[in-house]
Amino acid sequence: MTAADRPTGLRTEYATEPLGIDETNPCLRWRVETDRKGAKQTAFRVLVASTRERLDDDEGDAWDTGKRTTSRPAVEYDGAPLTAEGRYHWKVRVWDETGTAGEWSDAATWEMGPLAADDWEASWIRRPEDGEFERGQFSYFRREIAFDAAVERARVHVSAGHQYALSVNGSVVDRGQSFAYPDYQYYKTVEVTDALNAGENALGVLHTWNGEGQGRPEGEPGLLLRLVAELADGSRRVVTTDGSWRTREGPWTDAPLRNGEIAEPVEVVDQRRRPEGWSRPGFDDAAWDTVDVVGEHPAGPWERLVAQNRGIERRAVAPESVERLDSGALVFDFGRVYAGVPVVRFESGTDSRRVEMRAGYRREADGSVSADEGTQWTDMRYACVQRDGEQTFRPFHYLGLRYLQVDDPGEDLSPDQVEVIARHNEVPDPHAATFESSNETVDEVFELARHSALYGSQEQFVDTPTREKGQFLMDALNISRVTTRAFGERRLSRQAIEEFVQSHYRYWAESGRLNAVYPNGDGRRDIPDFTESFPEWVWRYYLVSDDRTLLETAYPVVRAVADYVVRHVDEETGLVTNLSGGEGGPYEEGIVDWPAEMRYGYDRAWPARTTVNLLGVNALARAERIGAELGRPDPELAYFRRRCEALESAVVDRLFDGDLFVDGADAEGASEHASQHANALALAFGVVPEGAIDRVADHVADAGMRMGPMMVPWLLQAFEASDRPAAMVDLLTDPADDGWANILAQGGTFTWETWHCRDEDLPDDERRNRSESHAMGATVLAYVQRVLLGVEFDDAAVGRVRVRPPTDGLESASGRVPTEYGPLRAAWERTDGEFSLSLTIPWNVEATVLLPAPAEGTVSVDGEPLGDVDDRADPAVPGVDCAARVDGELAVDVKAGTYRFSVGRS
Fold first, then answer.
1. Strand 7-12 with 27-32, pairing
2. In the predicted structure, residue 873 carries a pLDDT above the cut 80
């Protein structure tokens, strides 16, 4: 083993050098960058020390694992108890496939946050108010502090109900945090060392509270902050929120709400009321109010604080063009829909001039930004009331937008005075996944999905950044399936799954359900199909993340979902019947798909709906698989297996008419409608009788697109299961039919809530109420990787992949897929009857490569022929374990390394 093979990419709880974690048994992870064939780990040793000096001396005073024999490049900390606000240093060495020890990694660190309520020693504060709290309020808070020496290390732990922007000495250093119920309130830890100085300093917080809304529990307005500074003279200073802080109302003026879902106000900012220099030292705050002290934490509604170990990344996007309308208004086009806030820098403002602005998705015939087309009836206006001179307009809350119209700005705004601060959840690499193929439209669909998933991920996965910023379970599942594979994202998915687990215990522990959206202002609300889909999400996340802790956390809820399904099995039919949930609304007993027009005539008038039953089959199968991974007792696994087999048998007996699957049934009869939904799910879950697979697959493919963006992943999985890559390419590239190509053809730059967003045949109120920034439709990216690039995370085990390039549909494809162990790269091409595949499998990963194996022809790896493989062979090719013919394909098992496979004519 060489020095280049030493462990790299050290992460704690999936983060590099995280600050302020509160997990007392954090998981430590690493990888090795090497191109050696067969490279893998057989053992490791981790040292954790309280100081860097002890670590450098190979002393793990906090923890020394000793040499542990395992291939898993991760370990859950199990050393000395971790202390609040403590800093820990760690390193790792591994033993390779030959048993040779490698070199120690470079050191990594993590820091703990406050671990108990007593660790905060801070009080919740707010601006004094008379009577009820005012929705849409903005408040300034400030406090000055002097240090007698230079600051060597400083951290701020901060939490707010609901949101904050933290400033130090005049510069914004953080914005946050995720919405949560106040009994499970998030806090963040922020690095502020470089922002502080010896001498006078000032802390400032701009705080906002909006009451309850979609994705946001009501709670109460409040701010909690703890600054810990270590000084060069060896002293330690702690500053917390208390009665010494000063506050005043922000410059936002009374305005209507944007809509009834997010309940955010139209932001009208009066620049005359903005206190210049308010977060700098020396500002005169004598006229400000004394804060209202709610009490020392825990106080009021805030019972528990939980560390949020991730943040939001922001970047400025310049307009691609600007146009002056006949009215004199300027329209700035940013080229694509982004989630973000518009920023306008005025160079010569005029006192009391009110500049009206409007963000939007589309433009009217006269060039103006549409007030309602594409906005879902959201009021996307802004206004800036100017003061004299230079000033910058920047609202607080983000929206989805492509265009910004500025009416009568009072000066000739140039493009460099206007930008959108685009925002998304921080990810390891927004371009970690790549794809390029022989079909340009497929490539454009991949990029459309990548962009949509990135900007559909905020403090939580959002339904849409415009009307509903809530985290819907099915939307989150779909987006998570993309972000984990496209960006190597883990922490937002973990947070989201944990939050839906909380929803079960908060609202549904007795019935086995989960909330449809969580957290949320309306509290208890579920959708049956969403609950049934939760086990699939847990398993998919685990396969890409190796997050065993999360798997263990979610398993009791997965089992509760399985029991929920079983309790609704009707004794006479054996089918899941009248599945409780969504009572009194359009989701009752099963949503099927959404919006309603995306059901394409699905016959829901049956107590046993086929989609509900097939999702139940899958939920039971996933419960067994998750239980097996966790080593649950055999009788427990047998329970899931028996119930799954019985339900699957009833589905075939009652819902399969001998040719196709119909939409529903009862004890007396069955529907005569065989929807694409019913048949696609049957294919995706492997329920179709062997002799009917081709017939059902033909029916599904011939229908074109007859499933909505919410449920379309099962259609794509049906094509994968029935080996129809060409049908999938047709679906992705037909601009005349519903789907992604049609979105592109209509000028869409973000996936939509419905394929019909701009369909003039839809009723006006439905068409205008559909989102043009709905990331749940981005799941196509995962299936481009799985089917058209041919790379799938193997269901059999973490750390295994299956590579099976498609037999038709494309002539070539290449791409990169991030994994826990490094990037996997594949490039294949088919020309004149010959096939070639270049493949790089990352360290510690094993793969089964499935190649076309003509009866007459040659197959080689790295130029070495595999020979006549009739049954099973062990080729003498480095890194290749074995090769065998399986159903007309050649299955080659390989270990880490780079390979070139060639299949040619004899």
1. antiparallel
2. no
Structure tokens at 482: 């993309």
DSSP 8-state secondary structure symbol assigned to residue 274: S
**Cα–Cα distance, 140 to 125 (Å, whole number):** 12
**What pLDDT sits at residue 1?**
45
Distance CA 710, CA 592 (A): 9
Q: Which neighbouring-strand residues pair with 143? A: 203
Of residues 445, 540, 486, the one with CA closest to residue 815: 486
Q: Can you give 118-132 as a three-state secondary structure string?
A: HHCCCEEEECCCCCC
Taking only the tens place, the pLDDT of each residue in 447-478 is: 999 999 999 999 999 999 999 999 999 999 99
Alpha carbons 24 and 790: distance in angstroms, whole number: 39
The token pair that represents 680 in the structure block: 């696609």
CB 435 within 8 A of CB 491: no
- Distance (Å, whole) CA 850 – CA 872: 14
- Residue 416 DSSP code: G
Tell me the C-alpha distance between 682 and 587, whole Å. Answer: 21
Mean predicted confidence (pLDDT) in 94-119: 96
Predicted confidence band of residue 761 (pLDDT cuts 50, 70, 90): confident
What is the rounded CA–CA span in Å between residue 393 and residue 412? 16
- Domains within the chain, CATH numbers bracketed: 3-111 (2.60.40.10), 119-309 (2.60.120.260), 313-425 (2.60.120.260), 434-789 (1.50.10.10), 797-904 (2.60.420.10)
User: Residue for token digits 């449809």?
Assistant: 516
Question: Do the beta carbons of residue 12 and residue 28 sit within 8 Å?
Answer: yes
Q: Is the dihedral of CA 232, 237, 241, 247 positive or negative?
A: negative
Q: Which residues pair with 324 in a beta bridge?
A: 330
What is the average per-residue pLDDT within 774-786? Answer: 98
**For strand 321-324 and strand 389-393, is the pairing parallel, antiparallel, or unpaired?**
unpaired
| Burial label, 527 (beta-carbon count in 10 A; 0-12, 13-18, 19+) | buried
Separation of alpha carbons 11 and 77, rounded Å: 12
Of 784, 898, 779, the C-alpha closest to 849 is 898
pLDDT band per the 50, 70, 90 thresholds, residue 875: low
| AA identity, residue 635 | P
Q: What is the residue-wise DSSP string for 753-811?
A: SSTTTT-TTS-HHHHTTS-S--GGGGGHHHHIIIIII-EEE-TT-TTEEEE---SSS-S
Residue 809: beta bridge partners?
none
DSSP label at residue 508: I
E runs forming strands in 666-784: none
Please, are residues 218 and 211 in contact by the beta-carbon 8 Å criterion? yes
Contact 487, 454 (CB under 8 A): yes
For residues 842 and 824, the answer to whether their CB atoms sit within 8 Å is yes
CA pair distance 545, 248, nearest whole angstrom: 45
Q: Measured between alpha carbons, how far is 24 from 457 in angstroms, rounded to an integer?
A: 27
Q: Which two tokens stand for residue 658?
A: 């001998």
8 A C-beta contact, residue 294 and residue 222: yes
Using left for φ > 0, alpha for ψ between -120 and 50, and beta otherwise, residue 882 falls in: beta
Residues listed for the chain: 906
Distance CA 342, CA 322 (A): 14
How many Cα atoms sit within 13 Å of 426 on the Cβ side?
15
Contact indicator for 403, 359 with CB cutoff of 8 Å? yes
Query: For residue 868, what pLDDT is reported?
Result: 57
* Residue with tokens 């690499």, as numbered in its chain: 429
Q: Are 442 and 729 in contact (CB under 8 A)?
A: yes
What single letter denotes the amino acid at residue 269?
A: V
* End-to-end Cα, the chain, rounded Å: 40
Please list the residues that pair with 840 across neighbouring strands.
825, 898
- Indicate left, alpha or beta for 262 from its phi (over 0: left) and psi (-120 to 50: alpha): alpha
